[in-house]
Design brief:
By secondary structure, the protein is α+β, with helices and mostly antiparallel strands. It is built from 7 helices and 5 strands; from the N terminus they run ββββαβαααααα. The protein is globular and about 60 Å long. The relative contact order is 0.14.
C-alpha cells in the first residue's frame, strides 16, 4: 500500500487515521520509510515502518461496495451465542482483534442484540464500546455524516431491520 499525506487509512486497533507524514530515516546504514498516522477522535499519533503496514493490518477506508456489505452483515440474523461467558468473551475479543470490518460489524450486531435481550456484563459492554467507536467513526467519514447519525443508522439496522437509505452518500464513498 502506498501512503500519501492526507490519505485516510484504518489502523486495526486505533481506527481511522490520516497520514500526517511519510519520511525516510537511516537506521544502521539502511534507509527505512516511516508513516506517521494521526488517529481520529484522539490525541494519538502512530509511527510505523511503511513495509510493516500490511503486517500490522493497516488498510484503506471502506469503499461503497464495502458499505453495502457492512449493511448486509448488520441486517443478517445473529448465530447462536456461546452460553459460557468466558468462552464467549474470548471468542468476541478474538473477533475484534482481527481488525476486519465485516467481522467487527457482525460482532457489533451480535453484542447489540444480546444487550437488547439481556443487559450485557461489564466486559462485554466494554468490548461493544471498543468495537463500535472506530467502526462508527470510519462509516461517518466515508458517508460524510456525523457519528451520531451513523450510530443511529447502525442501531436501526441491527435492532429494527431498517435498511438505511445511503444511496446519495455512497457516491462520495466510491
Amino acid at each position: 500500500m502506498n501512503f500519501t499525506t492526507g490519505q485516510v487509512v484504518v489502523h486495526p486497533h486505533h481506527g481511522p487515521a490520516t497520514v500526517k507524514k511519510v519520511s525516510t530515516r537511516t537506521i544502521r546504514k539502511e534507509k527505512v520509510t516511516y508513516v506517521q498516522l494521526d488517529v481520529h477522535n484522539s490525541d494519538l499519533e502512530v509511527t510505523m515502518p511503511e513495509n510493516r503496514a500490511a503486517e500490522v493490518g493497516v488498510r484503506p477506508a471502506v469503499d461503497a461496495a464495502g458499505v453495502r456489505q457492512i449493511i448486509d452483515v448488520l441486517l443478517a440474523a445473529s448465530p447462536e451465542q456461546e452460553t459460557v461467558w468466558s468462552r464467549r468473551i474470548k471468542a468476541n475479543g478474538d473477533r475484534l482483534r482481527t481488525g476486519e470490518i465485516l467481522i467487527i460489524a457482525a460482532l457489533i450486531r451480535d453484542l447489540t442484540r444480546s444487550n437488547e435481550e439481556k443487559r450485557l456484563a461489564f466486559g462485554e459492554m466494554k468490548l461493544l464500546r471498543d468495537a463500535s467507536a472506530p467502526f462508527v467513526t470510519e462509516l461517518a467519514l466515508v458517508l460524510s455524516k456525523t457519528e451520531d447519525e451513523v450510530a443511529a443508522m447502525v442501531d436501526a439496522a441491527i435492532l429494527e431491520g431498517v435498511r438505511p437509505d445511503i444511496g446519495q452518500e455512497l457516491a462520495t464513498a466510491s
